[in-house]
Amino acid sequence: MTGQWYDADAGPLVRPYAMTGGRTRSGPHGVRFDLIALVVMDPGGADEAARSLLGPEHRALLALCRDETQSVAELAADADLPVGVVRVLLGDLLEAGHVKVSRPVPPAQLPDERILREVIEGLRAL
User: Fold this and answer.
1) Which strands, in side-by-side order, build the sheet including 70-71?
2) Percent of the chain surpassing pLDDT 90
3) Which of 76, 99, 100, 107, by CA, is between 20 and 30 Å from 93?
């Protein structure tokens, strides 16, 4: 039989559950990544030999965050992977020491809107 049995419209040939080994949560600690959590490759993390043992999806995520910090949402979009899959894979990378994650500031710690308005008004007065 010649020719391909699939086409470009068929979608990915590897299903998300295969990429994550059937897991829906990241790591044994169940770390949950917000969509706006910032991810960057840890230069002092695991060496090249350890990275070579990773799957292709893990390596793709590392390549995307190697040069600049990216959010979980950006990584999912750039890697063309579902956010749930990216969260599980990032959990693997975090536990192995390949990446660092900065959590977003909780809303309770953000400055009050009144203070921000006063700052803006003060800047305008300059």
Assistant:
1) 70-71, 38-41, 99-102
2) 13
3) 107
